Automatic annotation (TrEMBL):
It comes from Plakobranchus ocellatus. The lineage of its organism: Eukaryota, Metazoa, Spiralia, Lophotrochozoa, Mollusca. It comes from the Eukaryota. This is SMP-30/Gluconolactonase/LRE-like region domain-containing protein.
């Protein structure tokens, strides 16, 4: 199913909202987009060469973006301007089971979330 944001050409797989009220979205054409919520204006919509198939997304407390990559089976840190910063390999963790989730974004079999305490969880249900 393709979902269009009113007033924009972006077709998000999933989305998370920033504190300054922008949507961050990995898209069906393998780009990462930042869209202004109230107008649908696309601030940027571009591919990040290090990410083959962006699917899940969540915003960290400093405004950076965590993006799961289903093709490369990695978790990537991207700046709020869409610039790739770092890659992490996903690994199981017993983590803080009592933390509340700050945000969760899913698409298909992959999701990523950040707790209020900053713990990051990646779920791969393949």
């Amino acid at each position: 199913m393709n979902i269009s944001l009113a007033g924009s050409s972006v077709q998000p797989r999933c989305m998370d909202i920033t504190e300054d009220v922008y949507l961050m979205c990995p898209t069906y054409d393998d780009t990462i987009a930042r869209v202004q919520v109230d107008t649908g204006t696309v601030v940027f919509d571009h591919s990040v060469p290090q990410i083959g198939n962006p699917s899940g997304v969540t915003i960290t407390s400093d405004g950076s973006i965590l993006v799961t990559d289903r093709l490369n089976k990695t978790l990537n840190l991207v700046s709020s301007k869409g610039v790739w910063l770092k890659q992490f390999w996903s690994a199981p963790s017993d983590g803080d089971q009592d933390d509340e989730l700050l945000s969760v974004s899913t698409h298909g079999t992959v999701c990523v979330c950040v707790t209020w305490h900053g713990s990051v969880y990646v779920l791969d249900c393949l």
